[in-house]
Structures are given as structure tokens and as C-alpha cells.
């Protein structure tokens, strides 16, 4: 499902790994710069200097931009700071991709979104009621919840988590870990790839394999 073949880009050197259908993996970093480069490669934003980045057996960078966009409809990405559009309300950010690509209406999205929020509500006050606010008015945790829900509504085959648990209180991080693990198991063959700092929080994250990228 995700395959790197001797990929080099800046300080990321000669990286190879193969994450097969149904698998989970975490990649640990001691450098946020190195993590940002790898995230750019995974998101199709940066082209490798050498090697191949493959999704579903297809070399990502042999495709034109329009073809890559079609491919990414099967891939969910949760950026570290949410990646939300600043002038759209939280609920608009959450629903936009699913409406655009899947024709999912607000009424159809209500049940899965409620299920997500019900799992995350402890420790937050009125999270559901804050979905009418702009991203800049939300906490980091709330922005991550919106970004998670947005990705999950697309029912992707691959989910890439970018430092999703970093900077959160222990209980909040644990709730998000639990949610991502349960979502992984709800679709046969789904793949989850976690980009994580090499720290105590990431050590609690269960995954089938671990890759460490350090100097």
C-alpha cells in the first residue's frame, strides 16, 4: 500500500520500507525538519532526489497533478496543526472534502461525526457546540479533532498521521490514539502510518512495525 524504494531527499537518505495492506507503522524522528521532508514526500508536495514513492503499487511522481489528486482521494492526511482553511468554520472544514468527493451531505455526516465526538468529549467543554467557530478560535486539540473527523469521513484506505498526539495532555493523546486504532480496524486492509517524535508519548502507540529516522 505504501512503499519507499531507496528514497533520498535532503537529510532523508536511502529510505526503504513497505507497509502492506492492513498494516500499521510508526516512524520516529529526532528532527522535525526531517519529519517535514518525509511528510512532504508522502503528501506529494516534495519530489524525491532519488528513489520511488509508491501508493497502491503506483509511483506517485510519475503521475500528473490531476492524477495524483484522484489517487489521494483514497488517502487521508491529518496535518500536525490541522491543515484547516482559516476562513471556513470548523464544521465546513470537516465536511468539505467528503461533500466534494463523495457527495456526503451534512445530514449524512451527522451520525459518524457524533460517534467520533462521543469518544473524545471527556476533557473538553462543549466541543460539539464550537464547530461553528473559525479554526483560529479553536485549541490545538480541537483542531486535531476536526482534522481527524475530516479525514475519517472520506473512509480512506490509507491514513497518514503527522505528529497527531504531540503537544497534547496525556489523556487527550490517549483518546486520539484509541480512536485511530478503532478506525483502522473498521475497514479491511486499511493502512495507518504515524509520524511521531521519538518520545514517551509515541512509545505508548501500538503499531505493527517501527522505523527510526535519526542522525
In total, how many beta strands?
A: 9
| Tally of helical segments | 7
Shape, per Cα inertia axes: globular
> Radius of gyration, rounded?
17 Å
The helix/strand class is alpha/beta
Strand content: 15-25%
Q: Describe the main β-sheet briefly.
A: 5 strands, parallel
* Helix-residue proportion: 25-40%
Order of helices and strands: EEEHEEHEHHHEHEHE
Please state the average pLDDT score: 90
What does the model show?
It is a single chain. The protein has 215 residues and is of the alpha/beta class. The chain is 37% helix and 24% strand. The chain contains seven helices and nine strands, in the order E-E-E-H-E-E-H-E-H-H-H-E-H-E-H-E. The strands form two sheets. The protein has a five-stranded parallel β-sheet with strand order 6-7-8-3-9, sandwiched between helices. Strands 2-1-4-5 form a four-stranded antiparallel β-sheet, with helices on one face. Strand 4 and strand 5 form a beta hairpin. Helix 3 runs parallel beside helix 5 and helix 5 (140-153) runs parallel beside helix 6 (170-185). The model has no long low-confidence stretch (mean pLDDT 90).
Task: Write a compact overview of the structure shown.
With 215 residues, this protein is an alpha/beta fold. Helices cover 37% and strands 24% of the residues. The model has no long low-confidence stretch (mean pLDDT 90).
